[in-house]
Amino acid sequence: MFSVHFSGSKALLLRFKQEISPKINAYVLSTEQRIQKALKEGEIYGIDELVSAYASLLIYFNPCVLSLNSLLDFLEKIKKDIKLTEQSSSLCIEVPLCYDEEFGLDLEFVCKHNQISKEELISLHTKPYYLVFMLGFMAGFPYLGGLDERLFTPRLSSPRTKIEAGSVGIADKQTGVYPISSPGGWQIIARTPLEFFDKEDEKNPTLLKAGMFLKFKAISKDEFFKIQEQVAKKVYQKEIYEYKNH
Fold first, then answer.
1. 95: number of Cβ within 10 Å
2. How far is CA 246 from the centre of its chain?
3. Other CB atoms closer than 10 Å to residue 47's CB: what's the count?
4. Which domains does the chain show, CATH number per domain?
5. 101, 85, 63: which is closest to 189 by C-alpha?
6. Tens of pLDDT along 66-101?
7. How confident is the model over 161-216, as pLDDT tens digits?
8. Which residues, by range, are in coiled-coil regions (predicted)?
9. Are the C-beta atoms of residues 45 and 35 closer than 8 Å to each other?
10. Cα(227)–Cα(8) distance, rounded to whole angstroms?
């Protein structure tokens, strides 16, 4: 179950078992979905926003509409509806990546650090189905679970002032995608031509959502620029399918 903690006068933090695992994260997302269902069906009012993380859920509420006691009673009530089970299936999106040295600024370092070849790195990095635990750090940045331990690499000792949008990096035990150009300290090994954040799309500005899966696919430099052009023209067809997590 979760414990409830105050986070200012207009927010509550639900803390689950403090570990990074698909099972606990699935519990977080199930709780979020249960609350969203209650809002949609009019079971409760006054919750303004839900922010999920690895093992917590932050609830912003309007105390003028929803009293603290009513919210606490509701949370106690829904505990019995939430089962601690890992997702059996979810949507998966295939993300093309170019591992060319022009894009993989730290590719050579990561290979040397882990004593593997570039071909081995690509094979290890594209094999897993990565679970999107959460979005954070910046709009649309996915924190992914499932990186092979043979690719674990420390962050840069000195962060770069600018990393291009679409750059894919490794930091310690995780891999992630920079949705926009920004400073950053992850070891950059590749780049995707897909847009992970579209500020012009007001309904769905982020490509991913927590609970989805992601599968990387290696592409050539020529394929990268071809897909990039299709994305710019809004004609690229994303590969999205159901992934059964057994």
1. 25
2. 20
3. 19
4. 3-81 (3.30.1360.40), 91-242 (2.40.100.10)
5. 101
6. 999 999 999 999 988 776 555 555 899 999 999 999
7. 999 999 999 999 999 999 999 999 999 999 999 999 988 887 888 999 888 999 99
8. none
9. no
10. 46
With tokens 């650090």, the residue in question is 113
Can you give the three-state secondary structure of the chain, one letter per residue?
CCEEEECCCCEEEEECCCCCCHHHHHHHHHHHHHHHHHHHCCCCCCEEEEEECCCEEEEEECCCCCCHHHHHHHHHHHHHHCCCCCCCEEEEEEEEEECCCCCCCCHHHHHHHHCCCHHHHHHHHHCCCEEEEEECCCCCCEEEECCCHHHCECCCCCCEEEECCCEEEEEECEEEECCCCEEECCEEEEECCCCCECCCCCCCCECCCCCCEEEEEEECHHHHHHHHHHHHCCCCCCEEEEEECC
- Token pair 């009019």 in the structure block, residue: 42
Strands 89-98 and 213-219: parallel
- Polymer length of the chain: 246
Q: Which residue has the tokens 């291009």?
A: 164
